[in-house]
Specification:
The chain has 319 residues and is an alpha+beta fold. The chain has a single domain (53-318), classed as paralog of FGE (formylglycine-generating enzyme), CATH 3.90.1580.10. The protein is built from 5 helices and 14 strands. Strands 12-11-10-13 form a 4-stranded mixed beta sheet. A 3-stranded antiparallel beta sheet has the order 1-4-14, with helices on one face. It has a 3-stranded antiparallel beta sheet with strand order 5-7-6.
Length: 319
């Protein structure tokens, strides 16, 4: 277990786990066939990607701000839900990596006193993340937890490999990091959030993030302690829900701090290789005191076999 990213812990790359994904699964391929139900069109053209924010972290590589040109594409209006992922599993008998490993990461406040007493491993430096045997997408907080009242919530405890497998089954793909940011900005230019400059416009909560004192008390002032239904809160200018907070979203790209500095500016797909994949958008655990990566230009990463209770996905399709 490692704590490279304070937002979502990763499996130790030295661990032996489920079989590695075939090389083909790592390659970028365009997908221009399939239904676009539940998706929103994103116009092609140029947008300003990246951020020069006072809260940017050098290790995140948010900058420089640069003009990037994209082909038009479709993107899911909301994250993939538990109900949708259930359809995929029922149709394919797919087993997630968390199921194959036999455990996953769960945030400490979601565990009962008895569960906490059985925890044998926590993430060094982020001790609020616990290894829980039996934590899977069906049982996000471990045995005894259920998604029966959360069918319209985002699926979690899915790795990058799981996300890519779902996207391929659905006739879609994972968004490139550039596509994700372009869509999340909703047509706004270099605004701090997906809806503008203020975190709480008019004093109203616009996303599901941590409220209170992290990591010991979440007041749920925005309405939610954990995940929220995928269409909670007002959508952005392109009609996308919850691109800030709720759950991190897997992107296609390998993570790099500086590849993009001098990298491609037309339809970039990230570095050719790496050890960690990009995640974007922040989650219900983000708080300004330790991780304010719910800003639209913020970014982080995780190993592609890692799964947590605050990471999900949304898909794209080419026009």
């Amino acid at each position: 277990m490692n704590g490279d990213s304070c937002c979502a812990p990763g499996r130790d790359p030295r661990n032996a786990g489920s079989a590695p994904a075939p090389v083909e699964a790592h390659l970028f391929r365009r997908v221009s066939r399939g239904a676009t139900t539940g998706m929103r069109p994103i116009p092609g053209g140029e947008f300003l990607m990246g951020a020069a924010d006072p809260d940017s972290r050098a290790a995140d590589g948010e900058g420089p701000v640069r003009a990037v040109r994209l082909q038009p594409f479709y993107i899911d209006a909301a994250c993939v839900t538990n109900a949708q992922f259930n359809e995929f599993v029922n149709a394919t008998r797919y087993r997630t990596e968390a199921e194959n490993f036999g455990w996953s990461f769960v945030f400490h406040l979601f565990l009962t006193r008895e569960q906490l007493a059985r925890v044998t491993q926590r993430v060094a430096g982020s001790e609020w993340w616990c290894r829980v045997d039996g934590a899977t997408w069906r049982h996000p907080e471990g045995p005894g937890s259920t998604i029966k009242q959360r069918w319209d919530h985002p699926v979690v405890q899915v790795s990058w490999h799981d996300a890519a497998a779902y996207a391929a089954w659905a006739g879609k793909r994972l968004p490139t990091e550039a596509e994700w940011e372009c869509a999340a900005r909703g047509g706004l230019v270099q605004q701090r959030f997906a809806w503008g400059q203020e975190l709480t416009p008019g004093g109203r909560h616009a996303c599901n993030i941590w409220q209170g004192v992290f990591p010991i008390e979440n007041t749920a002032a925005d309405g939610y302690v954990g995940t929220a239904p995928v269409k909670s809160f007002k959508p952005n200018g392109y009609g996308l829900h919850n691109v800030a907070g709720n759950v991190w979203e897997w992107c296609h790209d390998w993570f790099s701090v500086d590849f993009h500095v001098d990298g491609p500016r037309t339809d970039p797909v990230g570095p050719p290789d790496g050890s960690r994949r990009v995640t974007r958008g922040g989650s219900y655990l983000c708080h300004e005191s330790y991780c304010n990566r719910y800003r639209v230009g913020a970014r982080t990463f995780n190993t592609p076999d890692s799964a947590t209770g605050n990471t999900g996905l949304r898909c794209v399709r080419d026009v």
